[in-house]
Backbone:
């Protein structure tokens, strides 16, 4: 059984079918890419998974447990972590406090300081521990966002456009970091940067007009005619 | 280390207040007692508004609940101050739980309106059940009930000590709370509730907990006010007593532990000064507040925190 499973997920906004009957499986230990042209429904789909939006149809299970009716914070506590597309940290709090909040809300049990230190070390932000988060550079903010996701100690980590706005050198570091998370953490990666997806993901799901257009390995997706057409608009 | 300095500062303030109350002549010591009771109210309001971002316009209800919760048993059944204070605290907390569990389904302006409506309904109920509550006139708390361990709370020194004791306990608990894990959650809810939710925090439950704590503080303050100054009246349930703690907190510094007492003292003496000067004293108070918002928008301690001491809780 897959770790995170969605069946027949549907969410319409007025007459627009943002997500229109999507089946999806995230296997334990994999990095799964989610791509699609702008407006394909990626963000709505992960909002349904994380519980920020309620689905109109369909079911979601995590490790076999039905979580469709659970509010977002309860899903986080069960191991479904989410990092924000637009960095949404607490700017007035210190880096330490930002990560400490994630530790408190997540599944980690034990010494708070040690758990925060571990998450910061994973992304290489130990030195900025006592800085006010609002004063960090953009690249550091993205790393802090990731550290908060890791500090939740999730089973599944949903990364929403994590490399957006990062410099090339930072992206290389990020790829290494995410690869190192598996197999303990399974990753769902929503990403515009094709090079990053192709390099990291073992499997890719392509959404278009709220439906699954294709699913497969990076090589299969690259060779898929329908995907090429969707992206080229042909 | 900074933790040690923070505690040292707050304890020093408590000692200074104690010394001031015992050394100053009776009139000023009574003023200070009043300020400390109102500052306890402000401590509770600040936990909700300053730290958690819950802008309530209904705290007069919790204050008055404490006042009547303590005053009614003292009046009707001759309870002594100790147990009356406890029923007052319980009344404040219970009403906060009831009102909060409904009002917290809203946020922002709606939350303000809903809390205001609850408080108005409560104030009107006090008038409606006037056989029990004394209605518009209120009632004097019998002196026989204003006793703690045989000491009369109507005398200057025991009254001041009781007010100081209530405030000191409230301050220590508030400081411990905002420095705790839960205190971090409170600030997170104020700063970005949606982000906090996606970190596994249940916003509704956490905010309800804060509101109940805040209600207990307000209830204790209202009960102490009744028992120390001997009068219970429905005017304490009016909107004015929802606005006052907000002013204390804004003047002293929202989201600072010591802001409440600074603000309560400031507004108290500002009112004293203005009423002595003119019958249009509210005009002067209002003017002072406009100046405050323009030039010191974060309040006294908010300014101190921004400029001098970043980690001040």
Residues:
């Amino acid at each position: 059984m897959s770790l995170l499973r969605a069946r027949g997920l549907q969410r319409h906004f007025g007459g627009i079918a943002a997500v229109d009957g999507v089946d999806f499986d995230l296997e334990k230990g994999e990095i799964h890419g989610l791509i699609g042209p702008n407006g394909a429904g990626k963000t709505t789909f992960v909002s349904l998974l994380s519980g920020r939006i309620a689905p109109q149809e369909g079911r979601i299970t995590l490790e076999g447990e039905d979580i469709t009716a659970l509010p977002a914070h309860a899903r986080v506590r069960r191991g479904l972590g989410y990092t924000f597309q637009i960095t949404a940290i607490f700017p007035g709090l210190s880096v330490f406090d930002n990560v400490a909040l994630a530790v408190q809300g997540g599944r980690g049990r034990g010494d708070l300081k040690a758990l925060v230190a571990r998450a910061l070390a994973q992304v290489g932000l130990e030195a900025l521990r006592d800085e006010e988060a609002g004063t960090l550079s953009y690249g550091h903010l993205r790393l802090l966002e990731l550290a908060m996701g890791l500090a939740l100690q999730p089973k599944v980590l949903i990364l929403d456009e994590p490399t957006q706005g990062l410099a090339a050198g930072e992206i290389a570091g990020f790829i290494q970091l995410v690869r190192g998370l598996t197999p303990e953490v399974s990753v769902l990666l929503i990403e515009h940067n094709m090079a990053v997806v192709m390099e990291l993901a073992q499997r890719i799901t392509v959404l278009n007009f709220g439906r699954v257009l294709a699913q497969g390995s990076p090589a299969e997706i690259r060779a898929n005619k329908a995907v090429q057409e969707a992206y080229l608009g042909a | 280390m900074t933790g040690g300095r923070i505690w040292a500062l707050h304890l020093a303030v408590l000692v200074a207040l104690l010394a001031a109350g015992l050394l100053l002549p009776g009139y000023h010591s009574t003023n200070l007692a009043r300020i400390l009771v109102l500052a306890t109210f402000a401590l509770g309001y600040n936990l909700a508004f300053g730290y958690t971002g819950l802008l309530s316009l209904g705290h007069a209800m919790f204050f008055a609940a404490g006042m009547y919760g303590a005053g009614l048993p003292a009046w009707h059944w001759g309870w002594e101050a100790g147990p009356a204070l406890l029923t007052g605290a319980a009344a404040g907390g219970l009403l906060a739980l009831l009102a909060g569990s409904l009002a917290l389904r809203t946020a922002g302006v709606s939350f303000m309106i809903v809390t205001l409506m609850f408080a108005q309904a409560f104030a009107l109920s006090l008038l409606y059940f006037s056989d029990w509550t004394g209605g518009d006139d209120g009632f004097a708390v019998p002196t026989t009930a204003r006793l703690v361990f045989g000491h009369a709370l109507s005398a200057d020194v025991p009254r001041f000590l009781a007010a100081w004791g209530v405030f000191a306990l409230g301050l220590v608990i508030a400081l411990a709370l905002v420095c705790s894990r839960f205190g971090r959650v409170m600030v997170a809810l104020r700063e970005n509730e949606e982000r906090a939710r996606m970190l596994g925090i249940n916003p509704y439950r956490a905010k309800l907990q804060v509101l109940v704590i805040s209600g207990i503080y307000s209830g204790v303050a209202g009960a102490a006010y009744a028992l120390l100054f001997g009068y219970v009246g429905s005017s304490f349930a009016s909107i004015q007593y929802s606005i006052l703690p907000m002013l204390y907190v804004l003047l002293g510094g929202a989201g600072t532990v010591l802001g409440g007492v600074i603000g309560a003292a400031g507004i108290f003496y500002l009112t004293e000064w203005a009423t002595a000067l003119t019958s249009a004293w509210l005009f002067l108070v209002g003017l002072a507040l406009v100046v405050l918002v323009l030039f010191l928008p974060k309040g006294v301690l908010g300014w101190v925190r921004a400029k001098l001491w970043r980690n001040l809780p």
The radius of gyration of chain A is 17 Å. The mean pLDDT of chain A is 91. The interface with chain B takes residues 50, 52, 71-74, 76-77, 82, 84, 88-93, 97, 100-102, 104-106, 112, 132, 148, 152 of chain A (CB under 8 Å).
